[in-house]
């Protein structure tokens, strides 16, 4: 069903008014899915043209796109996409910032603690001494990532755990907004054995202090990069300080396609959104900006890798992780993060006169408001 934009808008206005407890009929679900496909199809057609204009665009074993030298592609991402998956190590349930793109926006003070003296790995709780036991019993992962929320809130607790995984030969990377970095704690991280430090530069809006900390981090940590959800604000701030940022010597930039959930979607009200494979819901401009960013990096031969960490990449990541866990063929943890689809959030793109579907057809009998829908 190649539903027209006009018909899609009519129906989505109706869907947006439905009570939360009212189930949609099968024909109505078909209309919703056809609309999502038409939006995604139009977005994909435009992006194919954009990608064709990026010099030297490369693909990592069919999983994700990037520009730059393959040997510089971050090992943490290779662990996620090609290795045994992304094994998250969690400790800190607090953050000193409140970013509009954060998945925990509005609930930052309600994040449950991991537990005094404890670490969460694979959904289980461990004391630091238990990690030796874990590494003896289970097959060690190709890589782990320190996530949730801002580790530098209590960075001194991390050094011992990092040393244990370093001694076991496990690649380790950590995420930070960079605002609490000092020469002392960055040096301590390097001495402990951290392999990669990833700065969410968009969290500080490309603050000079954080840019300086990235340069300091390069003195002590083998690989330093930027990983930030791509937004218009980050794109603008980065370009204004591009030379200063590239001068830090960072090794890679992961441009994450911003995806939304119940917590942060309100911060992007009125934006044109799309949903990828009925899974992640994102502003259309996020990956569009990434492709513009990559094109400029390739044309100007920036001395680093720029990685298109898109919804498609997340889809590939989840397929790969399920294969590592011996899941059934086609199994994936990728899916929609909304319990109830926010149909009202798609009204702006359907009302946008500058956004067109690739092609359209009239609704068949049974799918118009005046028809009997069985």
Quickly list its features.
15% strand; TIM Barrel; 374 residues; globular; two-stranded antiparallel sheet; alpha/beta
How would you sum up this structure, described in words?
It is built from twelve helices and 13 strands. It is an alpha/beta fold and 374 residues long. The protein has a domain at 63-268: TIM Barrel, CATH 3.20.20. The strands form two sheets. The protein has an eleven-stranded mixed beta sheet, with helices on both faces. A two-stranded antiparallel sheet has the order 11-12.
Separation of the first and last Cα atoms? 17 Å
User: Within the CATH hierarchy, at the fold level, what is the topology of the domain at 63-268?
Assistant: TIM Barrel
**Shape type:** globular
CATH superfamily heading of the domain at 63-268: Aldolase class I
CATH architecture of the domain at 63-268: Alpha-Beta Barrel
Cα-based radius of gyration, to the nearest Å: 22 Å
- The structure class reads alpha/beta
Can you identify the CATH class of the domain at 63-268? Alpha Beta
Helix content: 25-40%
Q: Mean pLDDT, rounded to whole units? A: 96
- Strand tally is 13
Report low-confidence residues grouped into runs of 5 or more. none
Tell me the strand order in the biggest sheet: 1-2-13-10-9-8-7-6-3-4-5
- N-to-C order of helices and strands: HHEEHEEEHEHEHEHEHHEEEHEHH
Helix count, per DSSP? 12
Strand content: 5-15%
Major beta-sheet overview:
11 strands, mixed
